[in-house]
Amino acid sequence: MSLGWSANDHKSAAVKRARNDSGNKVSVVLGAQWGDEGKGKVVDLLATESAVVCRCQGGNNAGHTVVVDEKEYDFHLLPSGIINTKCTSFIGEKQSLAVQCITVTLEDSIGVLTVYGRLFPKILKINKFSEFIGTTKKGIGPTYACKASRTGLRICDLMADFSEFSTRVKNLVLQYQSMYPALKVDVESELKKLKDYAERIRPLVRDGVYFMYDAIHGLPKKILVEGANAALLDIDFGTYPFVTSSNCTVGGVCTGLGIPPANIGDVYGVSKAYTTRVGIGAFPTEQLNAVGELLQTRGHEVGVTTGRKRRCGWLDLVILKYAHMINGFTAIALTKLDILDVLDEIKVGVAYKINGKRVPYFPANMEVLQKVEVEYETFSGWKTDTSAARKWSDLPPKAQNYIRFVENRIGVPIKWVGVGKSRECMIQMF
Ligand code: GDP
Ligand code: IMO
Ligand code: MG
């Protein structure tokens, strides 16, 4: 007897369906160094043609500055794409609460919840470990620690039964008071504020997995993910322990948003034409001299979130290649080329050595990384103002040479070159 179909037919129909349903691809913008590479600016540029812009990890430790029509916007938690009102902005895994899923619109951006910072500001001040790491003191580490220890409070908990949520908040406070006996928290007044927040954000909350699934499988559209922090700050692959608490490499996109790896499309790595780092930790190409000072002052290298001066040094190709190994960049945005305009000579770190021998990998151990000597290639500076350049041919040949060298050594095409803060100061190469 025939059933009218065979197991193989069914299989091939399922395979066909899977192929047809693979859905929209998501483009990703990630920091390739120690943060502050100009991710916000790249996102702002791409957001002009995107329907959805998402944050997937981190929290308000990020500081993304975007300049549009001479107006400067600083974003910490909201996606930088929010300036584009045609875009839907989405915060996946809102880490200030180790949370899942909030969508926000500009009018309702109430600086969503920084519950950890609210309840435990004193801990954040007295936490010696936070000083040791040089964190942003936004409660990112404690929040992720809560998540891993399964005592975290999530947006979905805040949206459900409030008395249950209150009990969990009280338990969390007791837990912290047992660790920090001097800690005083006015729990009732905090719960009142949380209840108020809960009602204000309720209309904005969506289930993230369904939201992303619908975005991916709905009408063809461009979806953009804005990475926060950066590869060398990644909890697993960064310069541990001087890192943040989330995965800021490409895997964090899937775990933060609940999307399949197959839906990741272009992965854009953002790097400055030199290197900066905020906070403590090894920094092989750091220049504790006049060059470092010039990069710091000319580049206005001051942390947006903490107001701390950023440490500055030459571009480090070892870290960029390492970031590419993890992220598989399809293209690079090289920002702040204009800051190098006045230098007589420009160096690029091309390899690390220990005791005169090349280290064939990026050292995972911090003591080893602290010890490396950097091998440099030296370029003569172009000594020309590049800030008005709008296309490749406007750049001086020496600057073109520098860019091509970097591109060849990383082995990834450079798609954009930044020559100024504003949206139009971005040369698109292809
Ligand atoms: P993000 O955290 O990666 O988004 O980067 P930040 O916004 O923290 O830091 C980058 C800073 O450099 C911001 O102040 C930007 O306005 C600025 N910036 C970005 N691209 C360029 C560029 O090509 N040239 C100059 N001069 N400034 C830039
Ligand atoms: P954006 O997205 C630069 C650094 C902090 C500290 C370490 C841990 O603007 O590039 P945390 O508060 O996250 O626990 O701090 O990580 N850090 C950043 N540095 N830019 C960032 O974000 C950063 N996010 C975290 O300075 O050294
Ligand atoms: Mg920043």
**Oligomer state of the chains in this structure:** single chain
CATH superfamily of the largest domain: Adenylosuccinate Synthetase, subunit A, domain 3
Structural class: alpha/beta
Q: How many DSSP H or I helices?
A: 15
Task: Please compute the radius of gyration using only Cα atoms.
Answer: 23 Å
Average residue pLDDT:
87
- Give me the CATH fold name of the largest domain: Adenylosuccinate Synthetase, Chain A, domain 3
Give the N-to-C terminal Cα separation. Answer: 60 Å
- Percent strand: 15-25%
Number of strands: 17
CATH architecture level-2 label of the largest domain: Alpha-Beta Complex
Query: How many domains make up the coordinates?
Result: 2
Any descriptors?
alpha/beta, four-stranded mixed β-sheet, binds 6-O-phosphoryl inosine monophosphate, 20% strand, Adenylosuccinate Synthetase, Chain A, domain 3, binds magnesium ion, 15 helices, 17 strands, Adenylosuccinate Synthetase, subunit A, domain 2, single chain, disordered N terminus, binds guanosine-5'-diphosphate, 430 residues
Give a short overview.
34% of the residues lie in helices and 20% in strands. It has helices spanning 7-20, 39-47, 115-119, 121-126, 128-133, 140-149, 155-159, 162-179, 187-201, 208-217, 251-257, 290-298, 317-327, 366-371, 397-410, and strands spanning 26-31, 52-55, 64-68, 71-75, 88-92, 101-104, 223-226, 264-272, 275-277, 311-313, 315-316, 331-335, 345-354, 357-359, 373-380, 414-418, 426-428. Strands 6-5-2-7-1-8-12-16-17 form a 9-stranded mixed β-sheet, sandwiched between helices.
